[in-house]
Specification:
Blueprint (H helix, E strand, L loop, with lengths): L3 E5 L3 E6 L2 E6 L10 H16 L5 E6 L9 E3 L12 E2 L5 E2 L2 H10 L4 E5 L2 E3 L1 H8 L2 E5 L3 E3 L2 H4 L6 H10 L1 H10 L3 E2 H6 L5 E3 L4 H13 L3 H13 L3 H17 L2 H11 L14
Bound molecules: o-succinylbenzoyl-N-coenzyme A.
O-succinylbenzoyl-N-coenzyme A (S0N) binds next to helix 2, strand 9, helix 3 and helix 4.
Length: about 280
């Protein structure tokens, strides 16, 4: 893939090619742990990918391997800068801004595919869970650490995880803080496919290309439909937003707008009350 760099960031890389955006954590020396700055950069890149109507699929991954040869998707929040009330950036303000990124990945109307090589741990694990699809390298390692390091994700990190792997397995993952290999993850439905590490990106690009051949509106409606029940009112808002989009695009919807602008009464009588 001939990737074009969109912008040079400090903590992430951001590239595009042929309808696909590739966004990657780039702190391999700390197993791609994230700090507030990392998440602000991720949020900017994801927002750009969302707004670019030539981009249909985003690949989320981690740069690597590190100098010691190990790979990581992400090891979660950077524990070295965790303060008393969140992760503290250069401005001295404590934050848990990864929650904003979780919501953006979940609600953007384009599939996000996690490509996991090496560790997906803690908040890094939650991010792959939130992605629409996950392709794992054969060296991938999955797990939560919250109860071991004094934290927990009671949002998507637990409820959505449980809807993927089941209540019993999700409780095991969080209560015992074990690590699971790629084969175990595939068996519990946590990942879609396992491939050799040197084929991970090619596999992700292939999946993205297959999605790009499909109908953008069908895919966006399906994503919001899959999200709707777990996301409550926000999920219904997304689904309803797509219904509004389709209505805007119809002749019937446009009759209302045209009549207003032409200062006449709308003529909706020509449209049927379908059964
Ligand atoms: C990933 C692990 C298992 C890899 O082990 P390995 O290969 O033995 O490497 P290490 O020698 O441990 O690490 C290499 C260097 O990288 C540093 N490093 C690794 N992970 C982190 C990290 N998360 N923060 C800071 N530094 C990290 C190591 O310190 C080492 O550097 P040196 O040699 O200089 O010390 C292993 O590294 C590991 O277990 N890492 C920690 C995993 C972890 O506990 N992560 C934090 C979990 N919590 C969150 O992510 C919270 C954020 C969150 O998403 C959230 C969201 C919503 C609501 C709540 C939360 C929440 O949980 O608070």
């Amino acid at each position: 893939m001939n990737w074009n760099t969109v912008k040079n960031f400090e903590d992430i890389t951001y590239k595009k090619s042929d309808g696909i955006a590739r966004i990657a954590f780039n702190r391999p020396e700390v197993r791609n742990a994230f700090r507030p700055k990392t998440i602000f950069e991720m949020y900017e890149a994801f927002t750009d990918a969302r707004e670019d109507n030539e981009i249909g699929v985003v690949l989320l991954t981690g740069e690597g391997p590190a100098a010691d040869g190990k790979y990581a998707f992400s090891s979660g929040g950077d524990q070295k800068i965790r303060g008393d009330a969140g992760y503290v950036g250069d401005d001295g303000i404590p934050r848990l801004n990864v929650l904003d990124l979780q919501k953006l990945i979940r609600s953007m109307p384009k599939p996000v595919i996690a490509l996991v090589a090496g560790y997906a741990i803690g908040g890094g694990h939650v991010l792959h869970v939130i992605c629409d699809l996950t392709i794992a390298a054969d060296n991938a390692v999955f797990g939560q650490t919250g109860p071991k390091v004094g934290s927990f994700d009671g949002g998507f990190g637990s409820s959505y995880l449980a809807s993927i792997v089941g209540q019993k397995k999700a409780r095991e993952i969080w209560y015992l803080c074990r690590q699971y290999n790629a084969e175990e993850a595939e068996k519990m439905g946590l990942v879609n496919k396992v491939v050799p590490v040197d084929q991970l990106e090619a596999e992700g690009v292939q999946w993205a290309k297959e999605i790009l051949e499909k109908s953008p509106i069908a895919i966006r409606c399906l994503k919001s439909a899959f999200n709707a029940d777990i996301d409550g009112q926000a999920g219904i808002q997304e689904l309803a937003g797509n219904a509004t989009l389709l209505y805007y695009m119809s002749e019937e919807g446009q009759e209302g707008k045209n009549a207003y602008n032409e200062k006449r009464k709308p003529d909706f009588r020509k449209y049927p009350w379908l059964p």
